[in-house]
Each structure stands twice: as C-alpha cells, then as structure tokens.
Amino acid sequence: MTHETRTGTVISGDELAAILSALDNPHRLRILAALKVGGRNYVSRLAREIGISRPLLHLHLNKLEAAGLVTSQLELSADGKALNYFEVADFRVELTPQSIAEAAATLSDKPERQGG
C-alpha cells in the first residue's frame, strides 16, 4: 500500500513496478483511454470498440485491475445477463528521480548481493 510522507503519497516499489508493467502495452493504453473518454463499459462492448477479442481484452483488463488502474463491477442486465463493467480508477503516479528512489527502497524482491 501507499503511505504518506511530508512530500505527499509515496507509492511502494512493488506497486510502481506493477503499474509500469501494466502500462507497457499499447492495448492497455488504448483500453485506459477508451474507458476514460467513454466512461465505464462492459467487456463485450469495449472489445468491439477497441477491436480486440474478448479473451485478449480480459487478459489486459486483469493486468490493469491487478495494478489498481481499473476497477470492475459485475451487474445483471434487465434480461438477466451478467455484465462485468470496468472503469478507470482514480490514480496518479508522478515519476521523478526522487519518487523512483523512494519506491525502489521498498521493493520486496531485492537482488542478492553479488561479488565479493
């Protein structure tokens, strides 16, 4: 989880790595853009709008949701179909040398020391 410092919210190294990994794909950038511009949307419609298959969209949405960039909510339509709606989460990530250094200090998978 993030924590507060005198300069504002500091994101953990693991969270930053997950966010950067999630954003390192053109499809996921398009998904975020489509949800931001068009608002919350369900998987089938979003897949048609972006022009990718539903299974591929699900993979990308799972990665975005795991990184905390989108949220989902399962709802029933009037005809009883389950629709999984996604929307962009409220997030802000500021990348500066200082914020990266602070995040890196909290990484859980620190490399082992080498050399000797």
UniProtKB/TrEMBL annotation:
Domain of life: Bacteria
SUPFAM superfamilies linked: Winged helix' DNA-binding domain
Pfam family name, one: HTH_20
Gene3D superfamilies according to UniProt: Winged helix-like DNA-binding domain superfamily/Winged helix DNA-binding domain (1.10.10.10)
Coiled-coil regions listed: none
Domain HTH arsR-type: 18-91
Any GO MF annotation of the entry: DNA-binding transcription factor activity
InterPro entries for this protein: ArsR-like_HTH, HTH_ArsR_DNA-bd_dom, WH-like_DNA-bd_sf, WH_DNA-bd_sf
Protein's recorded name: Transcriptional regulator
Upper lineage: Bacteria, Pseudomonadati, Pseudomonadota, Alphaproteobacteria, Caulobacterales
